[in-house]
Write a structure and sequence with these properties.
Chain B: It holds the Pfam family OxoDH_E1alpha_N. Chain B: Its cofactor is thiamine diphosphate. The structure holds 2 protein chains of 2 kinds. By secondary structure, chain A is α/β, with parallel strands linked by helices. Helix content of chain A is about 35%, strand content about 15%. Chain A has a 7-stranded mixed sheet with strand order 2-1-3-4-6-5-10, with helices on both faces. Chain A has a 5-stranded mixed sheet with strand order 7-9-8-11-12, sandwiched between helices. In chain A, α3 runs parallel beside α4, α8 crosses α12 and α9 packs across α10. Chain A is globular. The termini of chain A are far apart. By secondary structure, chain B is an alpha/beta fold. Chain B is built from 13 helices and 7 strands. In chain B, α1 runs antiparallel to α10. Chain B starts with about 70 loop residues before the first helix and ends with a helix. The chains are: A alpha/beta, B alpha/beta. Chains A and B meet through α3, α4 and α5 of A and α5 and α6 of B.
Chain lengths: ~325, ~400
């Protein structure tokens, strides 16, 4: 099977979707001729023409707003916000419009759009190139929220998102664009070429939304993770020798509660990890659900390992990013509880 | 020590407040027929003056004059008069229904009837409006069933939107009327996107964005102009300047100089101002702008100069911030009376026929209201089901919503 980076897999997903459905259009800042600042749309304008893949003015609300109008017309826009940190100007369009158009119009109008945005830290991105705003979207009825962690999923989930009849926030951990990353910044980076999930099938395939994947089977405790933290959790399990079961949630909304229940009921312990800040982060929802649905199986409190409740700093990158050491301590603490 | 005097902040004020005498003498109103009508493919740079003037067709004597006249037959004008009268009667009945507790909320169009009623007649089937909450004339003139409008206002068992939406936030796809949102100006940029989609698909349908004077201050307004200009989207961008944004006079949104139409000039968008109380002028300018869009000549920005005669909504009391007599002093008059006078002058209408029409329209609206009320009002009679509350959030109900629906016992 061909090997692709996450960037290539995402580009391939859009290529496949554009090739099979003329209604799919791709646009955003620097997305057209240049092919995107992360190269995710490279070659698409050349292949499909300027009216299918094009550059936009620097206006996130404009990008999302026109996409909503296009979707009301009957197109299927797959648009890009250059960094998740810059989605806020479009927040009104996403929350008040995209998420609600189907509901408020009783299905007369729908909003099948995908908003792709690079997310997450671990790249010395500082305050406005590192944020993980997923909780701002999981709180919004009517949205779907997807976070892939590898090239194979990225392609299948993006195709599924483009084909989905509802608006999807598609968060791409930019730290994973070129290779997996377990938080060991002191080691050389590895590429997807050596990772089994870097094998990405040609052509059309979809990874269904709302389904988690078990990345590591284990019996001691369950780690609920997504994006970059999947690899951090793997490293922490290996380094502590704790037989953790690692669940890659893949879709945060709708959430695969059955997979979570199954795993935590088996292990009796649960650690939630994410890069985003702690307070009111998505981990709070996960912890509450585990508490509610697995209470009689729990042998320890659910711990959350997350970014601190501060803006994402620059110089203190590795004291902020929840690396394998911090996650490992939580695993040990949970086992000892 | 600075050698400058201390700075001071300028906060614009309307010229008159409650208790004062309304005076619009400083509002320049060009003579009807005095503004030229350019070809639709004119270079936008050649018609910058149109953003600062007011295109008018009906003069004080009720005659249709000048180059913008002549887009409508007498029959069409009589139909237009009927639409405006119907909207006004509809408003009066629904305002009253709100006072009687049959609905929680209503917003009327008093004084602005010509804008949406006349513009609608310039559109073709398939074109899509992205309206605000004050363009129900698009529905009335578009033939949308009045009973369904009332069903929506009453949130009853026949409410097309299943009780999910605040009254007057209609949605009528088949009538070219996009779902109204409470969030101001969001639809302005969506209209541009719809138009871009039509162009991408090599369609011939065009989109229309609507916004009020106050809402032009929202950033979506600027985004809409940039995208419309950049991609030459087949869209007409309509600003209804009714002088008031709730209690705030238009000078707060507009700034100290210029006009709302003039905002388009910086984007290279042809920008016109039109007498919003002149049914003929609205139709003619609308037709011009729509023709430009349809011929792939790009967007047009139009400012309709009118006056919000009624309260902002049923939750508002304008006597707290403007003189009661202000609407009577408004120099562009009343759109219904002006069209009526024109038709009478032409011999196509009479006082007697007008009175007759008023009575007929009232009967029709009352009959529709009776029918709508038979399906329930907000606190009485038939209601949308509680199950409907959970439907339609997504195309398919996800597991967490199914659990919540079960928990709600429906």
């Amino acid at each position: 099977m061909p090997r692709r980076t996450m960037i290539e897999a995402i580009r391939d997903a859009m290529d496949v979707a554009m090739g099979q459905d003329e209604r799919v259009v791709v646009f955003g800042e620097d997305v057209g001729y240049f092919g995107g600042v992360f190269r995710c749309t490279q070659g698409l304008q050349q292949k499909y023409g300027k009216t299918r893949c094009f550059d936009t003015p620097i206006s996130e609300l404009g990008i999302v707003g026109v996409a909503i109008g296009m979707a009301a017309y009957g197109l299927r826009p797959c648009i890009e916000v250059q960094f998740a940190d810059y989605v806020y100007p479009a927040y009104d369009q996403i929350v008040s419009e995209a998420a609600r158009i189907r509901y408020r119009s009783n299905g007369e109008f729908t909003c099948p759009i995908v908003i792709r945005m690079p997310t997450g830290g671990g790249i010395f991105g500082g305050q406005t190139h590192s944020q993980s705003p997923e909780a701002l979207f999981t709180h919004v009825s009517g949205l779907k929220v997807v976070v892939p962690s590898n090239p194979a999923d990225a392609k299948g989930l993006l195709i599924a998102s483009i084909e989905d009849p509802d608006p999807v926030i598609f968060l791409e951990p930019k730290r994973l664009y070129n290779g997996p990353f377990d938080g060991h910044h002191e080691r050389p980076v590895t590429s997807w070429a050596k990772h089994p999930l870097g094998e990405v099938a040609d052509g059309h395939y979809a990874v269904p939304l709302g389904k988690a994947a078990v990345r590591r089977e284990g019996s001691a405790l369950t780690v609920l993770a997504y994006g970059t933290m999947v690899y951090v959790a793997e490293a922490a399990a290996e380094e502590t020798g704790i037989d953790a079961e690692i669940l890659d949630l893949r879709t945060l909304l709708p959430l695969d509660l059955d997979a979570i229940k199954e795993s935590v009921s088996k292990t009796g312990r649960c650690v939630v990890v994410h890069e985003a800040t702690l307070t009111s982060g998505f981990g709070a929802e996960l912890a509450a659900l585990v508490q509610r649905h697995c209470f009689y199986h729990l042998e320890a409190p659910v711990i959350r390992v997350t970014g601190w409740d501060t803006p994402y700093p620059h110089a203190q990158e590795w004291d902020y990013f929840p690396g394998p050491a911090r996650v490992g301590r939580a695993l040990v603490e949970t086992m000892e509880a | 020590m600075t050698r400058y005097a201390p700075l001071s902040l300028h906060v614009p004020e309307p010229e008159v407040r409650p208790g004062g005498t309304p005076d619009f003498s400083n509002v320049p109103i060009p003579k009807a027929g005095s503004v030229p009508r350019p070809e639709v493919d004119v270079d936008p740079r050649e018609i910058r003056d149109l953003a600062f003037s007011i295109i008018r067709v009906l003069n004080r004597e009720g005659e249709a004059v000048g180059p913008w006249a002549g887009t409508l037959t007498d029959e069409e004008l009589l139909e237009g008069l009927r639409h405006m009268m119907t909207l006004r009667t509809f408003d009066a009945r629904m305002l009253n229904a709100q006072r009687q507790g049959k609905t929680s909320f209503y917003m009327q169009h008093m004084g602005e009837e010509a804008v949406s009623c006349a513009f609608r007649k310039a559109l073709q089937p398939g074109d899509m409006n992205f309206p605000t909450y004050r363009q129900a004339g698009l529905l009335i003139a578009g033939g949308y069933p009045m009973v369904d409008m009332m069903n929506q206002i009453f949130s009853n068992e026949r409410d097309p939107l299943k009780g999910r939406q605040l009254p007057v936030l209609y949605s009528a796809r088949d009538y070219g009327f996009f779902s109204i949102s409470g969030n101001l100006t969001t639809q302005f940029v969506q209209a541009v996107g719809w138009a871009m989609a039509s162009a991408i698909r090599n369609d011939t349908r065009i989109a229309v964005g609507w916004v009020g004077d106050g809402s032009t201050a929202e950033s979506d307004f600027q985004a809409a102009l940039v995208f419309a200009s950049t991609y030459r989207a087949p869209v007409v961008l309509n600003i209804v300047n009714n002088q008031w944004a709730i209690s705030t006079f238009q000078g707060i949104a507009r700034g100290g100089s210029g006009t709302f139409a003039a905002r388009g000039l910086g984007f290279g968008i042809p920008s016109l101002r039109v007498d919003g109380n002149d049914y003929l002028a609205v139709h003619s300018v609308g037709k011009w702008a729509i023709a430009r869009a349809r011929r792939n000549l790009g967007p047009t920005l139009v400012e309709y100069v009118t006056y919000r005669v009624g309260a902002h909504s049923t939750s508002d009391d304008p006597s707290a911030y403007r003189p009661k007599e202000e609407s009577a002093a408004w120099p562009l008059g009343d759109p219904v009376l002006r069209l009526k006078a024109h038709l009478i002058r032409k011999g196509a209408w009479s006082e007697e026929r007008h009175r007759q029409a008023e009575a007929e329209i009232l009967d029709t609206v009352i009959a529709a209201q009776k029918e709508a009320e038979s399906h329930g009002t907000l606190h009485a009679g038939g209601k949308p089901s509680v199950r409907d509350m959970f439907e339609g959030v997504y195309a398919e109900m996800p597991p967490h919503l199914r659990r919540q629906r079960q928990e709600a016992g429906v």
